[in-house]
Every structure is written in structure tokens, then in C-alpha cells.
Amino acid sequence: MVSIKKKLIVLISAxxxxxxxxxxxxxxxxxxxxxxxxxxxxxxxxxRATKETLDIALGDIEKAVGMMKDIILSEVGKLSxxxxxxxxxxxxxxxxxxxxxxxxxxxxxxxxxxxxLNPELVPPKQGYFWVYEPHYTRFLVKPVPDMxxxxxxxxxxxxxxxxxxxxxxxTWILPYYDEVIGRDVISYCVPxxxxxxxxxxxxxxxLHATVAEEVKDVALYETGYAYLLDHQSRAIYHxxxxxxxxxxxxxxxxxxxxxxxxxxxxxxxxxPLWEINAERRRLILMLLFATVVVGAIFIYLSSRITxxxxxxxxxxxxxxxKLANGDLNAKLPxxxxxxxxxxxxxxxxxxxQLPNYLYRDSLTGVRNMTAYKRAIEDLQSxxxxxxxxxxxxxxxxxxxxxxxxxxxxxxxxxxLITTATSLVCDVFKHSPIYRIGGDEFVAILEHKSYKERxxxxxxxxxxxxxxxxxxxxxxxxxSVAVGFSDYNPQEDKTYDEVFKRADxxxxxxxxxxxxxxxxxxxxx
Length: 524
Description:
By secondary structure, the chain is α+β, with helices and mostly antiparallel strands. Helix content is 52%, strand content 20%. Helix 1 runs antiparallel to helix 3 (86-104), helix 1 packs antiparallel against helix 6 (273-324) and helix 9 (401-408) packs antiparallel against helix 10 (410-427). The chain is flat, with a radius of gyration of 40 Å.
């Protein structure tokens, strides 16, 4: 015969091991989800921070060049004077240079600034070209290139002018080596038109290294990195490609996140999966070790607890044996529920009643504000995941509740609330009803109720006209303002947008009802 003690030990041990490994398995799944979420958040955070830095730096250059363009247009005067009068042209260039120089000193990272006049309007080499010389720690004037000798394909010498003229709009030019500056640079140029006539190009250069370092400094795990491409997937900075190369960036067993800069460039952060999963593997090993240790401890404790449970049973067996042997003085244990049994019963009863305490309105029996918040959180999640295509929100407000309370007492007001609620629940029996205020209720209509919403609302209004409460031998009509709004998947991003429209519709209905029935308004 197998004793109860052995049965309990085996049962508790088996349950303990099962529960321990079940929880361990669930924990492994949760750890995997958390690590994946953390890695994605890390990629996003690094990408967003670097994007903001680059947007600010590149935006400063764009603003500075835009101001230079505005100054040129404000000083241009007559276009014919610039094209025909050499002295006027020289004075114009000198004045523009003098004013633009102050702007350059506030443009972070600028290593060259220039203004190239259209050689089709004026003689070649007209304008200015200033380059920062680190040895002298200041900008020095350089000869203006003869743009008639170069094309857009001579990027280092004619690209600033010809590419910008070809595009007809502000242009970021990919990194190239400039012999005059002696470094790889990135150019930002803007064309200038005067009454439809192309006057020239104004722009600035920044060191390619300035932009590249921001991207290169991104640190993700051990070997994660970031890269920057233009909208045609040409490299601005990539550790595996030269600037300007057409890239193929997809790699197996990696996770990436991409954001678009304000000028259309694409910044991407990348991390290898094996490095992301390294932390997961470490945590799983720790969890497995902890699971084994905890399981052993629980088995040991279960044997001790079993012993304490069995001892009273053994005493009972001894007492019954004494009785069987004729010992009438033997005392039997009291036949009653013990503490564990009473606790279990109490807990079970409490558990059955808990939903009524947490999620039900004590007066009306419908769902309360706590249940409503949980419902809209779930509904918003379904909207975000595009798991729901149609539903409607109906907002109801009991008219003249305050007036009823003031004139006839709160008992009459409660009667008005419960009568209106009962009618709402009866008509919209397939939809959840929530009490979200003293006199305000919300119903979320889905499935059959959504498809029949208009007829149900008409039925509700029709039945309202036949309902009343009786107070002090007086018949008081039950009046409820109703407003509803349909969810529009193409326009509505949040539940609050749908609710707001329904709430506004309810207030319009309330005002219309009060005017029709000559009820006092909220201000009266």
C-alpha cells in the first residue's frame, strides 16, 4: 500500500516541477519578446538621436544658404545693369560678399562659400569663391572656376553650378574630393532666378567627415553600425562602400531601422542578430539555473509541508484505533473545516464577487468607468493593429437629472437613471453599456448592433416617448440625449476622435430636445 504521505509528496513534486518548468518556458518567451523589443527600441533611439543631430547641422547650412540667396535678391537691382555694367556688377558682388560673410561665420561646419554668376549673362569667372584655410584659421579668396569649361559630370569643378542649374532647385551634392579645399566635401547649392532668368548659383560646402563622423560614432552592441544614403541608395557614408557608390544594404541575420532626414536622405541603424540574442542566451541560462534551484527547493519544502499535513491525519488514525480497541476516553479531532479550507472558500467567494466590485456600476448594474477604460484601451489596440474595420460610439446623456434631484430628491434622480439605463440595455442588448458619469453613458456598437444602429436608435427614441417615472403622483418623462459617430479607418487614428464626434452630436441633440420640449438649458 502506498501511503498518503508518499502520494502527496509525489503529487506536490510533480506539480512543482510542472509549474516551475511551465513558468520557466513562459519566462523564456517573455525574455525573448523583451530583448527583441529592447533591441528595436535601441535601434530606433540611436537612429532618432543621430537623425536629429544631422537635421540640425544640415538645416543650419540650408538656412544660411537661404539667407545668402535672399540677400543677393535684395541687392540685385536691375538685371540689365549686372549684365552690361561692369562697375555696377563689381559693386553688386562686393556688397553681396560683405553681407554674406557675416552669415557664414554662424554656419557650423562650413568650409567654403561661393556665388557663381551665369557665364551666359556675364563674362566667365564672375562671382566669389572663399575657402577656409586651417593653417590661417580663416577664409581666403580663391579664383572663381570658369563654368564654361566644365559640365555636370565634372562634379569637383563644375558640379556645384551645373547640377544645381539642371535641377532648377536647391540641391545636395554627394561627397566628392575638391582639389582647392583638399578634402572630401558635400555641397548644398541653390539656384537664383531674377524674373525667370537664371542669374547663378549660391552655396556652401561642408566636410564629408563632419557628416560621416556623426554616423560613424553610432555604437550598437559590439559590431552594430549606421549608414547614410541618398534617396537613390547611393552612399553618403557606409563602412562597406565608397561615397557615391550604389549600395546593396540588405544583410541576413541583422535587424535594422531606417528614418528619413528632412532633405530626403535615409539614415539606417543595423545590429547583428547574434549579438542581440547574446543577452537573451545569457538570461535564459540564468533562468534555467534558477528554475532547477527553485524546483529543488520547492520539492524539499513540499516534503516538509506534507509531513505537517500528514501528522494530524496520523493522530486521527491513532485515535480511531484506540476507539476500535474499546478505549472510550480517546479524543477525536474536531470534525470541521480547517483554516486552509475556510480560506479557500472565502477566497473563492471573493473571487466570484470581484468583477461586480471592480467593473460594475453599483446603481445601474452596467459596466463602470474602470471597465470603460479597459475597453477603449483594447479597442485602440485593435485599431492600431488594424484588426477592426467598423464600429460606432454612442454617447447618451440623461436630460434634467440635476433638476429632478433638486426638486424631488436623489431617490427620484436614481429612479430616473435606472429607468433610462434599463431602456438602453433592453434596446442595445447586444452591446456593452458603460456609465462614465453621473448622467452620461457610452455604448460601443459592433457586429449586428453596428449594422442596425440607426434602426436601434430610432427604436430607442420611440420607446423613450412612452416611458416616464412617477414621483409624488406626478409623471416625469424620461428624456435622453443621443449622439453617435462611426469609426472611419482612413481618417481616425484614435478612439478619442470617434468619441469626440459622438459627444458633440449628443450635445447638439440635447440642445435640440430642450428647445423642442422647452426644458431649461445648462446655463439656466
